[in-house]
Amino acid sequence: MQNIFARLGPDKLRQWLPLATLVILVAVVGVMQPVFLELSTLLQLASDTAVLFILATGVTFVIMLGGIDLSIQSMASLASVIVALTVARYGYGAFVLAVAVGALAGLLSGLAHVRLKVPSFIATLAMGGVLFSTALVSSKERSITLGDVDRNYQTWVTGTVFGVPNVIIIGLIVLAIAHTLQAHTRFGRYSAAIGAGEPAAYASGVKVDRQKVFAYVLSATFAALAGVILAGRLASGSPTLAAELLLPSIAAVVVGGTAITGGVGSIWRTLVGALIISVVRIGMTFLGVNIFAQNIVFGAVLIAAVAITIDRSKIPIVK
Length: 319
Prior knowledge:
It is a single chain. By secondary structure, the protein is mainly α. It has a single domain (9-309), classed as Orthogonal Bundle (ABC transporter involved in vitamin B12 uptake, BtuC). It is 73% helix and 3% strand. It has a two-stranded antiparallel sheet. A two-stranded antiparallel sheet has the order 2-3. Helix 2 (39-64) crosses helix 12.
């Protein structure tokens, strides 16, 4: 056994650890609660994972650069409010409007980071505050329930195709688009290079600022899309609709094996991480763990994942 581990090496073990963890978690919860392995439960798991995965996908692009986006939950909540307020007037155009606002918010966050030289966590934290306040003011500090006519526009989210919920199909489409961007475009290659060593990327002629701004635009756009889907699934919009999703989203990225210091990771890893988080969450619910205690578990998982994936050669002094 030791010889096998020696041949694999620490990098290979680290790469396959998230997938092995997912398999073990599913097996453990399935043994303790066999109903967990029923098709209806697994479809519900996949549906719940889709929103988390879309949120985590966007922030993956930023983390790959070595940055962070702390505004995604506020952007998702604001998008749900925009949909709830405008779908009766604009129909499907309300979804386009919400996503467009997300792209604009990401552009402003990116420009604040690269032009004003504001650290990413400060720029996005401030943007999150702006977005949250905008959602509060526009919704008059209340949850907005969609009417029956408004819900007809949500069937692209709430419907099914051959028994498969549409939200799962949307998640798969996002996976395909994000994987293509990350693995088969110059943007993806440049992002990995910037995360691995920004000075070297500059020296190689990479337009680092442009790559960063685009990453923040993607992050906020995917967050807005997640908010649109949440509004459809819950038939409402609220300034706090996605308030509890920031920590699980970042945890999904890091648990999946994307290094918080940037340069190493992939969208597929984020998918595995999102599934791990969902299995942990639903598993705890099946096992009777208090829902308010779940963030304790997510926090502990996040710390452990960062400790495993962090590249300490980049940060000889941890501040």
